Task: structure prediction
Amino acid sequence: MAEDVHKNPEVNGSKQPFSTSAKSFSAEDEAALTEALKRCSPATIEAAVKFRRTGDPTPVPTVVIGIIERFAEPDQRARLRGADDDLRLIEDLGIDSLTMMEIVILVEDALQMSINNDELRNLRTLGDIKVFIDCKVRGLPPPKPSRFLPIEHIGAVMPIQPPFLFLNEATIGSSSASAKYKITGDEFFLKGHFKDNPVMPASIMLEAIGQLAVLFLIEGGHGEEGKQADPQTIYFTGCEGVRAHRICKPGDTLTISIKPKRLKMPLATIEGQIRVGQEKAVYVEEITLTYGFRDAIAQPVPVASVSATVTPKAVHSLPAAAARVITPATVSVRPA
Amino acid sequence: MSKVYITGLGLITSIGNDLASATRSLRELRHGFEVYPPFDKPDVPVKVVGTIKEFSVDSSDPEDWVFPKKYSIKREILRGLAPNSLFAYCSMLQAIEDARLSPDDVANPQTGLYAASGGSPFLTHHYHERMLKVGVMRTSPLGIVASIAGTLNFNLVAHFKILGASCGFSSACASSMHGLGFAYEEIRTGRQRRMFVVGAEDCNTDSILPFAGMRALSLQCDPNLASRPFDVARDGFVGTGGGAVVVLESEDEVARRGVRPYAEVAGWGQASDGYNVAISHPDGIGLHLAMKLALKDSGCAPGEIDYVNAHATSTPIGDASEIKALKAVFNIPGARPAISGTKALTGHGLSLSGVMETAFCAIALREGFIPGSAHISQLDPLCEGLNILRATVAEAPKVVLNNSSGFGGANVCTVLKRAT
Result:
């Protein structure tokens, strides 16, 4: 039954942008708002009242985080407070899909907006929610949802291949990406780095951040009309402000995340970091890659018409790129 | 055919929220009635309720509820509960402990759960009102499972990880006795080794006051007089709620686990009046037949029955029907069972009553006493020839008959025997 609720296509969530000036905020409304948020922190209530009174979207993230916090199990709340935008609600916070709906209903109630089922399905991380609500409040179209890419997908599209691929899974959003890599201890370079003391080289960790940036360029949908980043043209150009905070060893799972700072062909600059659990491992202010465009691959179309609409070049370009083993994005900094 | 035993009980009732206090109330004929503050209004002529103490569940938001600290319940579970499923949840915990069941004993394909409740009219009302007020998509995602009649089985099966048979029964005040009867069948026929039988009801304005419309509720203001089955001046039932759980197990399980059962379930029977949607047949023909079938099923003659826990809600018509049915079965030489109505103490728990009174019978069998029928100042002359027990006696019954009747003329009776 719960599944039916999720899949029900008849939703009343409106796609119209939220209008902050639509209603005045009466004392009665404030009392109802305070009652609805009674189990949230005072700061959450204050932020919600401020937003509803002024229409200023600045306090909105505080409201949203406060509502998520109210529904999280008490032992998970600390995680939420220190969390970055990559925190996943279901996998990391243990929030199930019904709780997710409770959160949405209270957010709708507090901010006086409607969120429909399709939109709800795409909200995986704290960052997704913040960006989504922010767009709603400002009346902007919501960003494209982040996508989860399993290793099979990563392997098929990346110019970098094992044994030099340091992404096990990734989530690509429109304005950020995150990935995980578990250090197995079987990595070839750990035999010598260091003698009888396997430590993940900081250079390789920067490489992992660079690889996620490559994946983001390929899969993040940043082309111009009909163009997209060509995997065969992406190379490393430089990095700035690298700091390593934690020694990473076999058994550690690296959580890699990046955010683009500037994206304009032929240069892409991103900010990146790696965490192990809640601990910061590596931070890099900037990694810059160079890249070029190629024609975008046509969207999937019904099988019967594939041959008529897809150009031969587009059909062949993906397997060709995926098959080639090249390592253009290797970061050359001094090992730790 | 396997023998079936009662091995564990859990009770949240107006006369006690644990076995020890409920047993004491039964023995000492202490009732659980109070003048109910929400009925203290000029337009509400009903005043008395069999209240559930130590629980404060008047809010529509389960996170506002107050209940005894020994029950620690996570928000994730609470959000899908109604007051009745909270009572049932607590009763389940008691019953599992009382029967000394391990988590593996509870969660396996050979253990099932049958339940009965009328749902939560209180929460249904709340969620419908909210839907109309704030919109279809802003009602609680768990509003349905918390409030409809299946809320007990939905919640308990999920939270106690029940893997065997499960369903709910809906025959109004006979519901949980139907649950007991069919749970007994599951074990007797070897389809299950263990069954939880659960009954629970809300105890509030929305669950009780609608019965005022059919003039079924007592209008007595004195808690000591309101519920008096078999009294000539009885004027209706007193509403109550709460939860009750009975654990049934096969003889193999009883032997394997080495537990001492309360009683054996020896048989059951059911029959219908085919008469009126809400009024029992004036001669109690369905109940008469159900008693006969239960006796036959258990291989007991009327003369072997030591005690009858009557349905006896304290309504003028209902009690009269039952008196006639009892006379038809027991007015024979050698048969003179003690008869009492424990609703004189608890009030009428609707769907809950059958399994609650089964628990009372199990207590009587194990503890060796027969609870009296309280609050009778002038016995209805119609009872002439029946042994209506006016005070508790310290006599250990060997065989007990338990009656239950519901709307539509559904009648269910079970026979319990002292475990040997």
